[in-house]
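Structure ticket #2291
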Amino acid sequence: MLYTILQIVLFQTLFLLVYDLFLRRETFFNYNRIYLLLTSVSSIVLPFVKLPELRKVTTQETVIRLPEVFIGDASNTTSNHQVIEHINDVAITSSQLPVWQIVLYIGMALATLVFAIKIVKLYLIKNNNPKRWKGNILIVNLLKSSAAFSFFNTVFLGANIPNSERDTIYEHELVHVREKHSLDLLFFEVLRILFWFSPLVYIYQNRVKELHEFIADAKAVKHQGKSNYYQSLLHQILDTNTLSFTNTFFKKSLIKKRIIMLQKSKSSQKSLFKYALLLPVIFAMLVYTSTEVKAQEKSDAETEMIQELTDKELLKIYYNKILEMEKKGIKFYEISKYVGFGDGKSNDYIESREDYLKMSAFMRYMVKIMKDKKSESNELSDESRELYKKMYDLPHKSYQGYLEWKKTDEAKRKWESYTGNGTLKLFVEDMSNKTKKEQKRFDDLMNRLNKDKSYYKLIVTDGKSTSVIDSPLHKTESETELVEVPFSVVDITPSHKECENLISKEEKKQCFSEFVNAHVKKHFNKDVEKNTGLYNKRIYTRFLIDTDGNVTRIQARAASKVLEEEAIRVLSLLPQFIPGRQKGKAIAVAFSLPITLNE
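Resolution: structure written out below.
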């Protein structure tokens, strides 16, 4: 919600900048009025407009997810691994309102009270002074006053206004009545209540009031000479009305501008093209709202909630959300993405509180799956129950406990030992001042990185800052120039020789997927997965078919290093493919392939 409010304020700023820089000095008063009303509404509506077409054009996916490969009995996973399109639709809610929302609502309540007081004040002025009807116009004669203003079909005229000026001022106020200017001002009064904190709404209202006076002046001056009209404007009136939703004739801050605008020549028709500036501005806003980055996408309410809830409360929320995702039919693969698998954060030495509790909730979910599996087959022993009970709690009792554990040598060595995805790791006490022993270990790891192609990078950290060093063996000229192109827009998709004679892109895609699926099932060593002791082993892999058709940049992630190595081995056995082509040139296409191993 807070992010949407910031977007609205940003859009209002841009619209007002265009108006002040290009349109405000033009004499197209009615067009300017329409511009201000239209853009004030557009700034509120546009943040909620998401056009899929623009998202496709500007943010194309570069990795193609192939159909999942099931090795073994696939029926074991179908009850737990369902898919839906939008994980973010599942909302995390909190019973407590964030502080900023409380302040927002209090401000809105006070702004509403101020508006109500203004209405009451106007009502009292209307009822405490003599009035009479002139056609469908109600004229209120303000005793002992020199003010002049209007509100809908009511015109307020001060009794002290000279008779020589009274008709001119009345004609001016009639324009406000006929043009329904009061509706504009009331609309901005509502905006002032909703956006009481934003000065831009007040600027919008002042700009509109300014235009109202220009419009009324332009029409009223036709009924009287300009010199007499200037005299009416320059007449010293001290008793002016300041209600923001009424059109006031005597407003000192506007008199100079009104006279200047009356003297100004009409704008040329060529100046109308300035309104075309609105089109690219709105288009840019639509592109922005349709292609937002997801991470900013976490609501501010959720952020506030995370800060206020205890570890156990937040863990329960994440766990319940995972269960809700499963209930709604979300695949196991998507659930694992929600908790952080595959986002690259495993390289961080210290996880954030949110990531730590999400992963703990996921492990609790895995315990539930294993427990339910054994219960269904009547294999749940008392020993298993005790083990699951221990696994159900937070690994380190709390996030603070986790932070304390990360200071231990055990935690540092455990982090270093995980070298999946071709990653080497080193923990040092001080990044800027390594000890001799640390420097020697660093040199040894750099030597391995520079000589062994199975390693892609070295991560060095002291828990506060992190340095990532890429392998020079994987920075060849041909690889750095590869451009990964979405499968859906490739002119000629990567394919195998068995699929070469197929005509349509969909047929080739299906043939390619089936070939890779069959290859993995044929070559995967099932004895490897039996020795891991895990249930429903799952491996996430990624590979690239380069411009020569070779399978490169193979990566794998799993709960066991043994499974990762086996997946990399199997994918490295894939033959050379016919590379994809785009506009006549060979291009590289990236793929992701989830593999599930069942008993």
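Closing remark: The longest helix spans residues 99-127.
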